[in-house]
């Protein structure tokens, strides 16, 4: 921003500055309160010895007890090794896949990208259940078929209840699709001149990719990897289902078990969460440092996007990616549909394993209809609130020079650092412990606030990336014409970033509909959404209705993915290229 | 003569007095009941129940009978909601009226924390308050600490199975659970809190000893699952030989459908579980709660419960009420009402200790 471009009239500028400053302080206060309060409760609870809700004393007992927990070291190692491995694999394949989608003449690349979007939006719980049905030990469908085809094969060839099984399910339910989701737009913004020069100098496709594309894209790749690592480290649901049979605990499931035992040791869970935050903070700081060091740039005048010819690799890569997309989307969907028509979920060796009675029972339930309405309300409410909040925070963070805006940016990272189930407890204490929130406790608004806060990191980062692509000249022109900062934001900035804001809204919608951990302690009868209903059914061992509820969630999120992709294609939404 | 007249007069006076006070008492409960009915009209009833169609059917019948009460049902497992209720209450949030579920968490978590109302303040109908209508009144309330959790059904449960095809000789005894050949082949629902896995182990501890359970949890290197269904499936499909803490209906359903012929119930006396009702502290809709608990514990309510429960479940469709006929298919799970002391009563104070011992043993074992 140039000094000459600042709003002209001094008096009105002062007035606007004060209003702006007031709004900024209000924003930072609200975000700070909502984010810090749950964290504060963690700190307080970590010193409360005894079960929450009953008489407690104050002391360091929880800290001592946590450090004496022998499982912490192995859980920590599992968390790190699982996170690194899947991030590493996802990055290698993700960069390659994103490149062929964005930069080559791969047939059907638009549809393949849609497939990755759908895979990204699909909720992990039902998809994990589908993989259990397919590859859950000896009784998994794949192993049964293998044994029938090759009777000499015994035992489980495919077993999702294993270290590699967890990696696989993570890769296909989100880790790989999110890489493609984030990298494709960035790659599309890359000038193709360098690739063409490389090819002209005789480098083959692989060499061009590794020697030219990857170095140019390195800042974006590093950012995507750090974001992925942070999110990977508190992955929860997949490990909760697939980990126990293989005796694999990760940090978040260890915290969950401590919270779920009798009496629940919230104090120790809080200590573990604080340690967890401490471990993650370096990754967040690294992300900040790296992001600041490598400045963003916009598409220049010499930009050209000429697609690389894949030559003879065109069709083999096409079929390989189609297969991958099918495995990530259609296979779990079909398996779940079949599972929902089974008399006993997963029992194929009954004389007649099929029935429609679970569907009839589910569809006649009043609470299912109510939960469906609640889920849609939660999704729409979270999307609406999220779109406004994320845009404002991103704008303040990127386009203003207020003192401490870095703090605002940092605050938006905090909810990502705490496992969902723990922050849910913090939210519960905030909502019941703060008089201003008590009137809305038990309503859908409690869930909306929780979901929006849980999504604030990704939402703000996505809008921020889009804002960074905007040239400041447009805003400066508005200011030069007498437009206030608010007017400029509303009339100039918002229309330009609207497509990405809409996508963030749809992503928030899909996350809200599938949210489990973060709202686990907050859902009640009148506001209970489908995701919590599914969790209740799963927890009580009733997989058949849980599958039906999971399918409904899946259908809603797939529709959201398709709408998001439609917007993306229509308005060319992208993530900024770095460096 | 005078003595005789005096005696007759005195008898008459006593009789009139008794009749009068009985009439007054009747008038009292009647007026209280009528008032509760009137006040409950238009009120919400915020009810917590476990997810099971058996509850749903009974609640639907209640809604039909009392259409002016707006019943808001929250489906949630007792162990998931107990601490949350305490957190709410500690912060002055009293959102719930009644809790109808298996009663171990009511007794072990809410009751000691003062989170429940005395049920006696809510019971009005004479057919409910008359203890002669109930089997073994000593086992109607879960605790000596007071009448807070009313049990309408005590039932036997054995949530353990084994695969007879994978056991030498086809039969497993309780002693054989420590056989080295079963090392790594036993799936146990992690006994970290009061649920089916913990309760089964409490039953085994009563049959054998706590040391036996300790060996089972450590030397046998079992597979611990968090979820009972997952635990069941690890025996049904995953190659485990024994499952401790399995889903109640899956095995029965499977055998009914012509499968799972190799699965047998674990040779253990199991435990006695209890289904009951409590009113939450400072219930916001006292009148609606009063109407519900009285209806549920009445003959009509219990007959409805037995009928609906039998439709969707394989055990416990009977009542502690003497005047309610049990479902004939559920008699296997009916305890000897006159000798309830002989069971591990997991929802009662006595069972709470047995449960806590198992949980502590498990936690110690995990720490090591």
Topology (SSEs and partners):
The complex is a heterodimer of chains A (579) and B (368).
Chain A lengths: L9 H37 L1 E2 L7 E2 L2 H7 L3 H33 L5 H13 L2 H12 L5 H9 L13 H26 L4 H8 L4 H29 L3 H6 L8 H10 L5 H28 L2 E2 L16 H27 L16 H7 L2 H34 L5 H7 L2 H4 L2 H14 L10 H26 L2 H9 L4 H30 L15 H10 L3 H29 L5 E2 L1
Helix pairs in contact in A: 1-12, 1-16, 1-18, 2-12, 3-7, 3-9, 3-11, 4-7, 4-13, 4-23, 5-7, 5-13, 5-23, 7-9, 8-9, 9-12, 11-12, 13-23, 15-16, 15-19, 15-21, 19-21, 20-21, 21-23, 22-23
Chain B lengths: L1 H39 L3 E6 L3 H13 L4 E6 L2 H13 L7 E5 L1 H7 L15 H4 L11 E3 L2 E12 L2 E4 L22 E4 L6 H12 L2 H9 L4 E3 L2 H9 L5 E3 L3 H9 L6 E3 L5 E9 L6 H12 L1 H14 L36 H19 L1
Parallel strand pairs in B: 1-2, 1-3, 7-8, 7-9
Antiparallel strand pairs in B: 3-11, 4-5, 5-11, 6-9, 6-10
Helix pairs in contact in B: 1-10, 2-11, 3-4, 6-7, 6-12, 7-12, 10-11
Descriptive key words:
heterodimer; A: 23 helices; globular; disordered C terminus; B: alpha/beta; five-stranded mixed sheet; 12 helices; 43% helix
Strand order of the largest sheet of chain A: 1-2
Order of helices and strands of chain B: HEHEHEHHEEEEHHEHEHEEHHH
Tell me the fraction of residues in β-strands of chain B, as a range. Answer: 15-25%
Q: Major sheet of chain A: size, sense and barrel closure?
A: 2 strands, antiparallel
Global Rg of chain B: 24 Å
**What is the oligomer described by this structure?**
heterodimer
Structural class of chain B: alpha/beta
The count of helical stretches of chain B stands at 12
What ranges of chain B have pLDDT less than 50 throughout 5 or more consecutive residues? Answer: none
Going by helix content, strand content and strand pairing, the class of chain A is mainly alpha
> Which of globular, elongated, flat, extended, rod-shaped describes the shape of chain B?
elongated
- Percent range of helical residues of chain B: 40-55%
Biggest sheet: strand arrangement of chain B: 2-1-3-11-5-4
How confident is the prediction overall: mean pLDDT of chain B?
90
Spatial separation of the terminal alpha carbons of chain A: 19 Å
- Which percent range fits the helix content of chain A? over 70%
Q: How many whole angstroms does the radius of gyration of chain A measure?
A: 25 Å
Global geometry of chain A: globular
Strand content of chain A: under 5%
The poorly predicted ranges of chain A are 1-8, 297-301, 574-579
């Amino acid at each position: 921003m140039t000094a000459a471009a600042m709003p002209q009239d001094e008096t009105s500028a002062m007035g606007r500055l004060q209003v702006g400053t007031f709004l900024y302080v209000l924003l930072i206060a609200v975000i700070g309160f909502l984010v810090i309060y749950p964290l504060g409760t963690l700190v307080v609870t970590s010193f409360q010895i005894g079960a929450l809700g009953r008489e407690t004393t104050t002391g360091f007992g929880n800290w001592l007890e946590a450090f004496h927990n022998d499982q912490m070291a192995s859980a920590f190692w599992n968390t790190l090794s699982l996170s690194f491995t899947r991030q590493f694999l996802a990055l290698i394949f993700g960069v390659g896949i994103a490149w062929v989608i964005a930069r080559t003449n791969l047939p059907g690349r638009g549809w393949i990208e849609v497939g990755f979007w759908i895979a990204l939006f699909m909720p992990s719980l039902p998809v994990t259940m589908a993989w259990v049905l397919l590859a859950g030990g000896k009784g998994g469908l794949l192993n049964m078929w293998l044994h029938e085809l090759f009777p000499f094969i015994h035992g489980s060839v495919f077993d999702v209840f294993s270290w590699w099984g967890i990696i696989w399910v993570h890769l296909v339910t989100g880790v790989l699709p999110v890489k493609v989701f984030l990298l494709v737009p960035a790659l599309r913004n890359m000038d193709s001149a360098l690739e063409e020069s490389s090819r002209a100098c005789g480098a083959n496709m692989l060499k061009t990719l590794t020697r030219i594309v990857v170095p140019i894209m390195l800042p974006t790749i590093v950012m995507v990897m750090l974001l992925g690592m942070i999110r990977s480290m508190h992955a929860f649901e997949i490990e909760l289902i697939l980990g126990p049979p293989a005796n694999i605990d990760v940090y978040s499931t260890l915290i969950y078990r401590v919270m779920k035992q009798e009496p629940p040791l919230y104090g120790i869970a809080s200590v573990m969460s604080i340690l967890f935050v401490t471990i993650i903070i370096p990754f967040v700081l690294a992300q900040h440092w790296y992001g600041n060091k490598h400045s963003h740039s916009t598409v220049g005048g010499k930009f050209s996007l000429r697609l690389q010819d894949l030559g003879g690799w065109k069709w083999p890569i096409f079929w390989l990616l189609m297969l991958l997309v099918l495995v990530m989307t259609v296979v779990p969907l079909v398996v779940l549909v079949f599972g929902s028509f089974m008399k006993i979920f997963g029992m194929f060796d009954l004389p007649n394993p099929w029935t429609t009675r679970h569907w009839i029972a589910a569809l006649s339930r009043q609470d299912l209809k109510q939960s469906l309405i609640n889920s849609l309300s939660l999704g729409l409410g979270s999307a609406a609130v999220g779109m406004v909040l994320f845009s404002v925070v991103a704008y303040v963070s990127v386009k203003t020079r207020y003192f401490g805006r870095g703090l605002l940016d940092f605050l938006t990272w905090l909810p990502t650092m705490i496992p969902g189930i723990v922050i849910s407890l913090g939210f519960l204490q905030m909502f019941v412990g703060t008089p201003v929130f008590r009137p809305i406790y038990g309503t859908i608004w409690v869930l909306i606030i929780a979901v929006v806060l849980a999504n604030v990191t990704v939402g703000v980062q996505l809008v921020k990336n889009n804002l960074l692509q905007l040239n400041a000249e447009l805003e400066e022109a508005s200011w030069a014409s007498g437009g206030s900062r608010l007017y400029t934001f509303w009339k100039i900035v918002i229309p330009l970033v609207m497509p990405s804001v809409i996508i963030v809204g749809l992503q928030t919608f899909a996350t809200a509909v599938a949210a489990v951990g973060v709202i686990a302690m907050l859902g009640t009868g009148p506001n209970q959404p489908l995701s919590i209903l599914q969790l209740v059914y799963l927890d009580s061992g009733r997989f058949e209705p849980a599958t039906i509820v999971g399918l409904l969630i899946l259908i809603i999120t797939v529709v959201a993915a398709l709408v998001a992709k439609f917007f993306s294609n229509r308005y060319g939404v992208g993530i900024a290229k770095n460096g | 003569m005078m003595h005789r007249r005096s005696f007759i007069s005195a008898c008459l006076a006593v009789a009139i007095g008794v009749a009068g006070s009985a009439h007054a008492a009747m008038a009292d409960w009647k007026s209280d009941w009528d008032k509760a009915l009137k006040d409950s009209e238009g009120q919400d009833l915020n009810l917590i129940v476990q997810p099971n169609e058996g509850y749903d059917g009974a609640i639907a019948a209640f809604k039909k009978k009392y259409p002016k009460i707006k019943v808001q049902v929250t489906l949630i497992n007792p162990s998931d909601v107990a601490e949350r209720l305490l957190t709410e209450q500690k912060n002055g949030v009293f959102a719930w009226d009644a809790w109808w579920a298996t009663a171990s968490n009511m007794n072990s978590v809410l009751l000691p924390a003062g989170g429940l109302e005395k049920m006696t303040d809510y019971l009005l109908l004479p057919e409910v308050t008359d203890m002669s209508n109930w089997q073994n009144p000593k086992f109607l309330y879960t605790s000596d600490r007071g009448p807070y959790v009313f049990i309408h059904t005590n039932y036997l449960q054995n949530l353990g199975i084994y695969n007879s095809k994978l056991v030498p000789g086809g039969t497993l005894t309780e002693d054989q659970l420590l056989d080295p050949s079963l090392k790594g082949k036993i799936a146990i629902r992690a006994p970290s809190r009061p649920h089916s896995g913990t309760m089964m182990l409490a039953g085994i501890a009563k049959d054998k000893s706590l040391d036996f359970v300790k060996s089972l949890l450590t030397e046998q290197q079992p597979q611990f699952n968090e979820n009972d269904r997952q635990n069941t499936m690890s025996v049904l499909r995953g190659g485990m030989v024994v499952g401790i803490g399995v889903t109640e209906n899956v095995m029965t359903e499977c055998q009914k459908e012509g499968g799972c012929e190799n699965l047998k119930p674990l040779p253990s006396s199991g435990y006695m579980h209890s289904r009951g009702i409590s009113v939450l502290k400072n219930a916001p809709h006292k009148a609606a709660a009063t109407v519900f608990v009285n209806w549920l514990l009445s003959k009509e309510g219990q007959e409805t419960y037995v009928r609906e429960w039998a439709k969707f479940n394989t055990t416990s469709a009977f009542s502690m009420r003497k005047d309610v006929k049990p479902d004939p298919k559920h008699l296997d799970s009916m305890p000897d009402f006159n000798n309830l002391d002989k069971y591990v009563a997991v929802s009662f104070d006595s069972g709470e200790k047995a449960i806590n011992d198992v949980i502590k043993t498990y936690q110690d074992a995990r720490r090591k």
